[in-house]
Amino acid sequence: MSEIFREIDEELRRDNYAKLWARYGHYLVGLVVLIVVATAAVVGWRGYQAGQQRAESVRYAAALDLAKKGQLAPAADAFALLAREGGAGVAALARLQEAALRAQTGDEPAAAAAYKALAADTSVDLSYRDLATLLLGFQDLKSADPKVAIADVAPLMAPTNPWRFSATEVTALADLRNGDRAAARTLYKQLADDLSAPSGLRARAAEMSAALAD
Questions:
Q1: Which domain holds residue 49?
Q2: Is-contact 88 77, C-beta < 8 A?
Q3: Burial readout 16-38 (b: 16 or more C-beta within 10 A, e: otherwise)
Q4: What is the number of structural domains in the chain?
Q5: Which region holds residue 179: left if phi is over 0, alpha if psi is between -120 and 50, else beta?
Q6: How many other CB atoms are there within 10 angstroms of residue 189's CB atom?
Q7: Which of 118, 122, 156, 193 has the CB geometry, 3.0–4.6 Å to 132, for a possible disulfide?
Q8: Nearest CA to 204 among 79, 31, 40, 62?
């Protein structure tokens, strides 16, 4: 990881921001998405297992197994079906998994649409809707105007929102993609200095802030 950020620093010193994003942008987005999804999935799945019927647990586990075997499209279809037929708790988790798998198969529009639909579904618990909003921001970083990603996560930037730190990171990545070095560094420094932010995120932000320094 440190080698990547050293190379980023070298690119920045040549002021070649377009090349920087082309080379490292998707890697950074993918890294952050992986961390967010993995954390949310573990927490959500543990809670779900504790209170739902065994049959739905088996179906969810079977879909996960397909994904682990690299059968991404069938796994996405299995999660989509479970989202339609399962209870509220498993349905939200299944929708998140489906969207992530659609992105992995290269169907970026379907992934963005799935995240957007979940984020707008008021029948779903707010924690899942906010997570979908955050992941929509990451998704749009790869395929849309950076300003779209910034707008996506703007509602999550409130001081009391549990996803505010990741939303700030999305905004910093969007600024970086847009070539706004100063704005990106300001946000990364803010994250690095915030003792209430998760330690892993603070470490990433500190390295990026240093790489973007004059």
A1: 2-212
A2: no
A3: ebeebbeebbeebbeebbeebbe
A4: 1
A5: left
A6: 18
A7: 118
A8: 31
Nearest Cα neighbor of 118 from 107, 97, 133 is: 133
* Region 84-105 average pLDDT: 85
As a 3-state breakdown, the chain gives helix, strand, coil percent values, each rounded to 5, of: 85, 0, 15
Q: Are 82 and 66 in contact (CB under 8 A)?
A: no
Q: Which two tokens stand for residue 127?
A: 């924690």
Q: Looking up tokens 């739902």, which residue turns up?
A: 52
On whether the CB atoms of residues 103 and 111 are closer than 8 A, the answer is yes
Residue with tokens 């973007």: 212
Cβ neighbours of 163 (radius 10 Å): 22
Q: What is the CATH number of the domain that holds 90?
A: 1.25.40
